[in-house]
Write a structure and sequence with these properties.
Layout: H1 9-32, E1 34-36, H2 40-44, H3 57-69, H4 72-80, H5 85-94, E2 99-102, E3 107-110, E4 117-119, H6 120-139, E5 149-150, E6 167-168
Helix pairs in contact: 3-6, 4-5
Length: about 180
Amino acid sequence: VIHVGAATRVELKEKQRRTEGALAATRAAVEEGILPGGGVALVNAEHVLDRTNGSLSEQVVGAEIVQAALSEPLRWIADNAGHDGLAVVERARTLPPGWGLDALSGEYGEMIAAGVIDAAKVTRSALQNAVSIAALLLTTEALIAEELVAQPGAVMAPGFGDLAEGLARPSSPAGSPAP
């Protein structure tokens, strides 16, 4: 039993949520082990898909999609920490396995030794789900997506993706935030 205390109800709820998340991550790590964190394990796994010999073009395309996506977590972590994400990914590919950027310190090193770890179960589950979605998209005959259209005079808001660049979703009523 873990008792969590705080000065306010809001602070208590936040601490409880964080504690529950830490417990879930610890249980997942106990079940299947740990990997170098910060997206490094996924970048280290990219080369495995180089050997894909799919008999169907869809298998090859699917492998290429997943391979391209494997570096995205590291790129986003680096970008969010104020580094050039693409440069960090390229450098991580040249480092020994398990080495990468510690986003907190801004230094490169062995991730596990630096305490930057991911639960293998969580990483595996995320990768399996991504592959499942890629397979679904490749085998679907039709796909419905919402078009983003230019909205003159829109306020630029860095950090909000397409919406930050003066684009809007037509289904959003004027003046209301996009979903």
